[in-house]
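In practice, a research group might receive sequence data for several interacting partners and want a quick structural hypothesis before committing to experiments. The following worked case mirrors that situation: the sequences arrive first, and a predicted assembly follows.
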Amino acid sequence: MIEKLNAQPLDETKQLIQRKYPELLSEEKEEVKETKEIDFIRKIINEDMKTGKYNGRVHTRFPPEPNGYLHIGHAVSVNLNYGIAKEYNGKFNLRFDDTNPITEEEEYVKSIIEDVKWLGADWEDRLFFASDYFDRLYEYAVQLIKKGKAYVDDLSVEEIRKLRGTVTELGKESPYRNRSIEENLALFERMKNGEFVDGEKVLRAKIDMSHPNLLMRDPVIYRILHRTHHNTGDKWCIYPLYDWAHGLEDSIEGITHSICTLEFEVHRELYDWFLEQLEDEEGNPIFHPQQIEFARLNLSYTVMSKRKLLHLVSEGIVDGWDDPRMPTIAAFRRRGVTPEAIKKFTDGIGVSKRERIVDFSILEHYIREDLEERCPRVMSVIEPLKVIITNYPDDKEEKIEVNNHTRNKDMGKRVITFSKVIYIDNSDFKEKPPEDFYRLAPGRKVKLKYSYTIKCEKVVKDEKTGKIKELHCSYDPDSKTCSTKDDPEVKVSIHWISEKNAIPAEIRLYDRLFLKENPLDVEEGKDFTDYINPDSLKIVKGFVESFLAKAEVGSRYQFERLGYFIIDKDTTKDNLVFNRIITLKDTWSKKLENRK
RNA sequence: AGUCCCCUAGUCUAGCGGCAAGGAUUCCGGACUUUGAAUCCGGUGGCAGGAGUUCAAAUCUCCUGGGGACUACCA
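A structural hypothesis for the assembly, expressed as tokens:
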């Protein structure tokens, strides 16, 4: 009780200080920001720097497979890897892990390059392909054979699987396991030369068929695939597998910290084993990067697997990889989200080893925070309701100068028009207003933002349908510069647009793609697509300020009280198209919902 | 079933033997406001459970429980 009494005046003092001397409090805040949180990966790196493990060098990489579009989960990895490289004055590579010509395509290479660049990561001149190293990978394989640590196996896929055993049963050795080094060398060369058909032979590492880690039970490292590769064409008909290729790629590039997701944790043992076996021309062990695993991102109300995203695209559930409802980078870009917002988000959620489903509202928060700063304000009407100001002269027009941003005066001013016929948003009028409804209703007053106070005198309805056609309102000529607090009858000011200043626009209202928090948590007999939000896209015709006809594709605005919008690339000379990036927070309608 | 990994508010995260367990978001109040926005103030809410070590445990050890990875010639 005493605490409460004491707390009261203190809060008030703080609020007073905030109002009068905001700079005092903001300084305080910056100091708090100084204490930077450090994740477990950076801790490992700090330790390595201390011990001089890599001579103070930090070199990371982002190694996508070009078999799909990048999504926000990849952004976590890009930002992490590039961020670390920058922080430690290190380097960052972009490397395509293109060891499987069956699924990989040039189209994906292009989109990935564009996305990584857009995210702000800079690989300078270090854009690499695993396929650049096919020769060296082959040489290393020969070395492994020469050391008696790899052999050519004639077994079929099924036979290999059978002999591998299970997590509880030991594996059995292949009858071809003890071929001579010479025979293996010859056979491997013949594999490379295309003397065998797909699947006829493989090269396997000779490790331990009774190893508790299944991956260590003589893993296949080369398979025969008579396929044209997007990069090397028909030069090769044998291709290395991930475990063989990845560590070697890292080693070749001098990567110090090979950061990947949790599912590769079990692979680390193999990763290390390969690197320990091999040596360079002088007989020294080859460079040995360290693999570190972190938890991938899962976001609520969406799906992240490439397979599922591809399904949404190929089934036409969404309109392509860059449909603004998708979690792909291309979609975020088109939707209007900035790379800076994504960076804030990925920094904000941090990195850890616990599997996580990050709440969508956290992403939304960073998107709003970013847009709030950068978007000029504009008054647009999404669901127009015609309003006639009955006591305003027919042909009179007033120009009103308004700020483009409430706080940031650098964004300049613009001029809007007031006249007899205006449009307001349908949601700002209720014939039978619910409790707490502050906006317009029959007989009620509302402030038109930057302009007059109006009072609803009459509701005109369509005789046939009974739908509201227009509103007849009167205005108060003395109210132009008033604020809402000058008139006890006026609670809020609403946005509006004059007929004289309005041009039509197509407005695409996007919402979350799924209704279910975790769409992968499917009930019996259902599919993840059963949880698609049927209202994830609504297209409406509204009015925007006429100067926007000249605005460029990709420019973002805050439609006052509605949300943030961007001009879409579908815009043509006579069809202006806006995407809603995100709504403004709406505590009032949330309150109404919660009351239900 | 074997090996390995993980477990701090609804969600994400900090903590590294001594904290009133901190921050972000969500939610709920309030101040301010020509955006029911932003901004500001306040509140609800957490160490999976149990034993042990210790003067002292979210932190170290063990057990139990829960979640996950691995049984592809995918990455």
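Before designing any experiment, note the following. The first helix of chain A runs from residue 2 to 20. DSSP finds 15 helices and 24 strands in chain A.
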